[in-house]
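Per reviewer request, we include the raw input and output of the structure prediction for the construct analysed in the revised manuscript.
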Amino acid sequence: MPPVPIPTVHLLPELDEKLIHWLRHLTPADWDKHTRAGRWKVKDVAAHLLDGNIRTIALLRDGHRTAPARTIGTYHDLVGYLNELNADWVTAMQRVSPSLLVEWLAETGKVYTNLLAGLDPWQEAAYGVAWAGENSSANWFHVAREFTEKWHHQQQIREATGDDGALLDNRYFVPLMDTFLRALPFRYKEVSAEEGTVVRVEIEGIEKNWALQKSPDAWVLREAAGRTDAKVQLDKRAAWQLFTNGLSAEGARGQVRATGEERLIRVFLDTRSVMV
């Protein structure tokens, strides 16, 4: 049975509108504030969002691909390559003013969202969702991954500049977690367990719960019901920070309520739904 698609494309224009509105009200000091995105400041994260728009337009509208200057043989090769691309772009954008950056984000955002809205959800995407272990993905999953990128980078900006609650509405947060948790079957694939073993995930403020269940030949993500061998409960802030590498497994220990088999819990705390 094919996986149930996660509808997100209709949310992208909303996220874009919220982003532009928020950026236009930042002070000069706000643009220089540090974020949870490593060494990147607010302006760096905004520049990275612009890069995502431009790369997508170049690929989907113009058929333009940039061939890697190195051999990409492993997942770690891919991560290294992407990190170099991201760093090069952010460095170059230091010469661009915040107001020009917002102007370009507004212009390219409309083209970006229209291009993704025009994709056939079940056709093969230009790139697989590697953090979910897929070399090839359907467009709906590619778009959902794009949604998580747009969401979490905007959230990093908002957290650094005084508003980390606007995007926590379940309208955005449930599909966000539906997408993030698609990393779990891949991360657990080497974990041995008896058939039927269940890892249950509960997030505060969301009625929906998720269960990762061991089938005869794989781990399968579904809505929670029945048996529970390990349970992880966390609030929304801890959830998004953990899955986007903004919170370490050790740091999450103080924010997560976990019961059951420790080896199953540890894999959950080590799971990330970004390229790291």
